[in-house]
Automatic annotation (TrEMBL):
Species the sequence originates in: Paxillus rubicundulus Ve08.2h10
Official protein name in the record: Uncharacterized protein
Domain of life: Eukaryota
Length: 84
């Protein structure tokens, strides 16, 4: 019985305290990128603070696009996506 208890402690990953029923390792394994850290700076007008991200794909799209670029306006919460 002690062996089984030790075995379970080693093989079962820790559970997320915020979302019971979800394993931390499963959540991290399904996230290819880590989320951005919260921004302390807030924009007071459109286009004052624009976030951008460039992502590549392993396989080209039907129209031979391999990259995608995203622009996100902090003030308006509008996002623009362009395939490259």
């Amino acid at each position: 019985q002690e062996y089984i208890k030790d075995f379970l402690e080693v093989t079962i990953p820790p559970v997320d305290p915020v979302c019971p029923g979800f394993f931390v390792s499963c959540q991290l394994g399904k996230q290819p990128n880590f989320p951005f850290t919260p921004c302390d700076v807030c924009a007071k007008e459109p286009f004052e603070l624009v976030h951008s991200d460039l992502k590549s794909f392993e396989v080209k799209s039907y129209h031979c696009h391999k990259y995608i670029i995203v622009f996100y306006d902090n003030f308006t919460s509008m996002a623009w996506v362009q395939c490259l």
